Amino acid sequence: MNTVTVKGMSKRGFVFALAGLAVAALLGYGGWRMWGGPSAEDAVVNIPPAARRLTKLQYTNVVSDIFGPDVRPGGRMEPDLRQEHLIAIGASKTSITASGLEQYDAAARGIAQQVLGQEDYRAQVMPCEPKSETAADPDCASTFLSRAGTLLYRRPLTSQELEQFTQIASKAATETGDFYGGLQLALSTLMISGPFLFIVDNVDQQSDGEPRLDSYSIASRLSFFLWNSVPDAELLRAAEAGELHTQKGVEGQVDRMLESPKLRQGMRAFFSDMLELDLFDTLTKDAAIYPAFSFDVARDAREQTLRTLVNLLIDRDGDYRDIFTAKETFLNRVLASAYGIPVPTDALLDGNGWFRYEFPSDSEHSGILTQIGFVSAHSHPGRTSPTLRGKAVRELLMCQSVPDPPAGVDFTLIQDTKNPEFKTARDRLDAHNSVPSCAGCHKIMDPMGLALEAFDGVARHRTTENGAVIDTSGELDGVAFKNAAELGQAMRQNAAAATCLVNRLYSYSLGRTPGPQERPFLTDAKQRFVEDGYRLRGLLRAIATSKAFLSVKPAPNSDTIVANADIH
Amino acid sequence: MRYSNRGMKRRGLVATAVLIAASQPAAASETRGYVVSWWFVATHTVADGSDCPNGINPRTTEAFARVLKEQGYPQAEIEKRVIEAAEKGQGGGGYHQIMSTRGRDKDGKPVNTYENPERVADPKIKLSQAKVAYGFNLDGKVSSEDFTDPETGEKGIDNQYYRALGCLDTYRATVGVSRPAIPEFKWDVTREHAPAWLIEISGIDDYQNDDQVEVSWHLATTAAIKDASSGVRRDMTMMVDAGSRMKVRLPAKIQDGWLLTDQVDELKLISDPYFGPGYDFKRARVRIKFNEDGSIRGILGGYLDYLKAYWGEGGSYGSTWEYFMGGDLPGLYYAMKKSADADPDSNGQNKSISSTWWFEGVPAFVTHPNRAEAQLSDARKSP
Q1: CA A174 to CA A193: how far, in whole Å?
Q2: Which is more confidently placed, B193 or A183?
Q3: Cα-based torsion angle of the residue sequence B310, B315, B321, B325 in order, rounded to the nearest 10 degrees
Q4: Nearest to B236 among A287, A293, A337 (CB)
């Protein structure tokens, strides 16, 4: 039987001050050994279990959901890794560096202090009162750690784990004369351990001996997929009751989760990942050229796109393809100024900040491709880029690969936006594409990007560049368009867009690229998605209740995941 | 009482910046909104220094050394304290204490210098000898003390405020060309914390020539918002503070692309009292130019009570102003008093000083919460 355990937590040589970092060191030198590499043949046949490191956003959501929104992880976190277009996939392929664990340790200590260091706050989270605040109380410590540990590990702690963490709390309380100080240390140690920082697929056996995901792992898969956070009490109850090993039980929980307000949080995370909106964490523009692109606008541009998507796809249960044509969006005061749009008086007065806005029917602002969240992210700091924008359309929204440019390409002509001979981006690209080695790839990227030339580097509409009229016409896979709005229509009609969503969502749900053995499921899911009117909820349900999503089949000779979290 | 649009000579009006939009008659009466993005005394520094032929006024350390010497400090002590003040700021070398209490009452006891500037002997700061300065002929006369406007060529310009502080180092700048650093810093702080000033120009039928338009100057409910280049963000929606005492409506005309208001008896601009004094202008006029990028620039001229002007310009800031602006506040007080050029009291001392202020504005959507009719003034579209 393949099991994933944290074993061998030694009681020897406890050193109070270094307890957390001992775990860190073990993780840092590679104490986590992931599933042994299956053979190429096995890889085709088997769907391997995985261990995914919590993303920064998941970490924040988990802390908020368990301890309350006022508790904030401070400091920096190990950066997320994007692989094969998704952070969700990168999370399956990354470990934790020594310095990264120091950051987790600092964050965990800060959280523990916020939760237990303040009298009024800990009154809300403590299930018991210690006999004395200046001495150890193993019973009370164990009660708290059992509760918190179950939520943080997304499963009940083993008796060995609970004993270990209780001992940490007791010894620290004895040495410091501070019950809550000891409990803080135990909590922070728990929060830098593997079962918290990694979402691990634990495997047990069915009655016929076949391996399967254990019920708590199913609960975690569901909750991180749909909510991007930990299972709630009801989902953990269902896991404990074994209900998640029945199709009916899973469907019941999925239906409940799809109606939860947390679905918005989950889908915001998915679309942030799919559209690479984390680009805005570091995106800068030349302030002399684009003074409108401030920190506020960068932050709000991402929010605009997410609000647009969640409103259309979750709140209104709309057609996914409408994301390319929707006139309805959400703006706030600063973002409205970037678009050059006045804010209605009632929106100014209500103090909410965000208001619903519908671009006029004749506006080229149409769908997410024409929002700041897309055009500014896929532009250079001081100029637009039809190529980057077109590449992003192909790769992020159609799941198509565009080769990197060949080495030694001379970009001088394209970068010279003040060249009087080539006034528009189209002029410059036409000249550049006279080089045969460049022309092939540009042909599949540039037409979409050139349609978006109607928007400058911060999505302000324009009709000319350097005094020359911008030609926004083009063709996408045989469908001609005259402008950005028609490009949106062409994208809406393009089957690759819907197929891409199905594939990305499935990859996101499991943290890996689907293998050939999963193609039939994806084909079927796509077909049902189309028949269902391209509704996201239906697709989420199809994936979350599928055998493909819930099953696991380790290769016969694969190792167990072992965390030798000895504390010396 | 309202003054006519007199005295503005069109001869010499610059016609080079004819707007694409402005050259076209507007389809219907338009209203444009702006948020004021820069406000400062309309100085006109000449590069060769001929406006201050005797040099500029002493800087902070020199003024401090002079005061120490007047108070009998030995030379070695003076040098030590001056260095300490330069290195440690206002608290160094006893700068704040000594400068703030250098006034003496009739019994020779120290008094607050800035509240009692006449308890300090007039240091006779140097006044600008410039012949050219921005502004208007506010009194309809042309005298030897008046200037000629560099933009319009109009003579008889009344701007004695500029004469009083034109040779202070930190005020030396030329409108539209350079901004003095410390006043800009002061403006930045004001801009971020005080409710913004909004300008609306309504009734525009033709941006080149229009006999009847109106300029309104409002206080906003919020401060201006900065953009990535630390300028004021364009195209923000700004709400008028309908309850504000600041209600300025100026009849105006547009002539050859210049908007010129009538001269009005009173023009009150309210400012955050912590950062600015507010301005109670008398016999004021405004001139505005529409810029090609949709923004505006302009000047406002009018008379101010010289005592309030002194207090607002520097007196209320005390030694902080003297330290950072490098000026002598009693000196500024005497300069303004001497330069005051209107409204004499019974002793013949003029109570008002003519002044000109430079302002700039970026397009904004100006909205009125209580106005039943048109709710919004469009921001001028960027070309």
Answers
A1: 23
A2: A183
A3: 20
A4: A337
The answer to whether residue A564 scores a pLDDT higher than 60 is: no
pLDDT at A61: 96
As a whole number of angstroms, the distance between CA B356 and CA B161 comes to 7
Chain B CB contacts of A288 below 8 Å: 229
Q: How far apart are CA B95 and CA B84, in angstroms?
A: 9
Q: How many CB pairs under 8 A join A and B?
A: 64
* pLDDT tens digits for range A329-355: 999 999 999 999 999 888 887 766 899
For chain A, the average pLDDT equals 87
Q: How far apart (Å, rounded) are the C-alpha atoms in residues A471 and A459?
A: 16
Q: For A422-445, give the DSSP string.
A: --SHHHHHHHHTTSHHHHHHHHHH
The predicted pLDDT at position B17 comes to: 29
Window 64-103 of B, Cβ < 8 Å to A: none
Distance CA B316, CA B329 (A): 10
List Cβ neighbours of B322 (8 Å cut-off, separation of 6 or more): B60, B63, B99, B314, B328, B329
Interchain pair B367, A349: CB under 8 A: no
What is residue B51's predicted lDDT score, i.e. its pLDDT?
Answer: 93
Query: Where do the DSSP E strands lie in A180-290?
Result: 198-200, 203-205, 211-213
Domain ranges in chain A are: 385-489
- Cα separation of B146 and B136, whole Å? 10
Nearest to B235 among A294, A340, A348 (CB): A340
Give the contacts of B130 (CB within 8 A, at least 6 positions apart).
Answer: B44, B46, B50, B51, B147, B162, B163, B166
B19 vs A262, more confident: A262
If DSSP codes are grouped into helix, strand and coil, which group holds residue B34? strand
Of A292, A341, A348, the CB nearest to B367: A348
3-state secondary structure of A322: helix
Cross-chain residue pair A292–B228, CB shorter than 8 Å: yes
A348 contacts chain B (CB < 8 A)? yes
The structure tokens listed for A362 are 């004749």
Chain B nearest C-alpha distance from A270 (Å): 30
pLDDT tens per residue, range B100-123: 999 899 898 999 999 999 999 999
Contact by Cβ (8 Å): A472, A308 = no
Which helix or strand (DSSP H or E) is residue B26 part of? strand B25-41
Residues contacting residue B372 through CB under 8 Å, at least 6 positions apart? none
Measure the CA–CA gap between A112 and A114, rounded to whole angstroms: 5
pLDDT at B376 (0 to 100): 62
Give the residues of chain B that fall short of pLDDT 50. Answer: 1-23, 373-374, 381-383
Q: Is the dihedral of CA B141, B146, B149, B153 positive or negative?
A: positive
Nearest CA among A198, A58, A189, A195 for reference residue A112: A189
Quote the pLDDT of residue A356.
94
B1–chain A nearest CA distance, Å: 35
Q: What is the pLDDT of residue B26?
A: 52
A467 or A431: which carries more pLDDT confidence? A467
Give the pair of three-digit tokens for residue B352: 């008002």
Nearest to B376 among A288, A334, A342 (CB): A342
State the residue for tokens 């500024």. B332
Rg of chain B on CA atoms, in Å: 22
Distance from CA of B214 to the nearest CA of A (A): 22
Two structure tokens written together for A474: 């083009």
In the beta sheet, which residues pair with residue A198?
A53
Q: What pLDDT, in 10s, does the model give residues B203-215?
A: 999 999 999 999 9
State both tokens at B87. Answer: 């290195």
The verdict on a CB contact (< 8 Å) between B379 and A285 is no
**B365 strand-pairing partners:** B237
How do strand B197-206 and strand B210-219 relate by DSSP bridges? antiparallel
DSSP output for B157-192: B--HHHHHHTTSGGG--BTTT---HHHHHHHHHHHH
